[in-house]
Amino acid sequence: MDTNRQFVLAQRPEGKPSDDDFDLVEAEVPDPGPREVLVRTRYLSVDPYMRGRMRAGESYAEPWAVGDVLQGAVVGAVVESNHPEFAAGDTVTGNLRWADYAVADGDDLVGVETGGVSDSAALGVLGMPGRTAYFGVTDVLDPDPGDTVVVSAAAGAVGSVVGQIASLNGCRVVGIAGGDEKVAHLEDDLGFDVGVNYAEADVSEALADAAPDGVDGYFDNVGGPITDAVFEHLNVRASVAVCGQIALYNDEGVPTGPRKLHTLVEKRASVEGFLVGDYAPRFEEATERLVEWVQNGDVAFRETVVDGLENAPDAFVGLFEGENVGKQVVRVEAEFDA
Ligand code: NDP
Q: Which atom of ligand 1 is nearest to the CA of 275?
């Protein structure tokens, strides 16, 4: 059997992570114990929240120690199973490792059922990011038909689905993203009413045109100056769903403190943070709806695929440079013998 390459955290990043923060080491392919399953990685997900796990301090996910093997969502093939629900050859997903192989308790794995959609979609539109969009829009933001909804990091894994679900709810949807190609993708492929390229435009000025009746719902993936600009356009009783603050993840502390909160007073607006994990009892509901929407063409999706486990750190760092359109995944399977 192959050796097992795996990434460990070499040191804690300072600012934006770099290659020096990751070490690719070789280990034995692990043996599955009772009720455990050996999984060969086909696709690995890199996600912004992993930056929080690289810090010593608390984030909502437990910090990794220096030297720990990095973990992440994987779609993989069962190689050997000591669990009654899985057999060799099954395709499964779970929180495994940045590695060629990993063992997991079979109770923590789920069979991949994407209804004919690509298996890698279980890491994106039909996985955690899609569910985040689903609950963030339907439960947290809960917009009315006719509302104007703005989403930041709109061309990314979560944001692209957020906008489409809001459109299905009859909202006017404005997406903010970095680059003309992303804006064209939002408007031409995903049905957003307007895309705003924050790299070129003054976001506040652009929103005056894109959201002439003001903003009723804001799905915040980024924080920082983009969120400041959106806050200037909130309507009375607007809702803000705080999903993520990627613009701040590489900062040590938040340099300017909570910003623009006076707007919330004037507008009697509400701001609610949420974590997709809290919706675990309803994951099946979300997956069923998302599969249905993707199958019938109501929700389109794109993936940015990087080949090779060794390129996982670059794919991860690329999230902070806007290199991905849609879900960023790493394809590991191509490296295995057939
Ligand atoms: P994306 O696929 O959206 O990738 C990240 C994107 O963020 C990049 O493509 C880039 O797009 C944008 N970005 C990066 N740096 C900045 C910056 N400084 N300013 C503005 N935009 C920036 O990632 P996900 O969809 O996986 O995650 C989106 C957000 O949702 C993250 O904040 C993440 O932490 C959060 N999240 C929260 C969850 C929860 O349970 N609350 C669950 C899942 C995700 P661009 O080119 O447009 O700048």
A: 40
DSSP label at residue 167: H
Lowest mean pLDDT among 128-137, 253-262, 291-300, 310-319: 253-262
| pLDDT at 184 (0 to 100) | 98
> Which residue, by CA, sits nearest to atom 1 of ligand 1?
156
Kindly give the number of the ligand 1 atom that is closest to the alpha carbon of 243: 41
* 138: DSSP letter: I
Backbone angles phi, psi at 257, to 5 degrees: 70, 180
Structure tokens at 164: 């489409």
In this predicted structure, what is the pLDDT of residue 334?
A: 63
CATH of domain 128-277: 3.40.50.720
Could you report the predicted ipTM of this complex, rounded to two decimals?
0.99
- Ligand 1 mutation target, pool 246, 248, 249, most atoms within 8 A of CB: 246
CA 156 to centroid of ligand 1, rounded, Å: 6
- CA nearest neighbour of 251 among 227, 281, 216, 222: 222
Give the residue extent of every domain in the chain.
Answer: 4-124+302-335, 128-277
Q: Which CATH superfamily is domain 4-124+302-335 in?
A: Medium-chain alcohol dehydrogenases, catalytic domain (3.90.180.10)
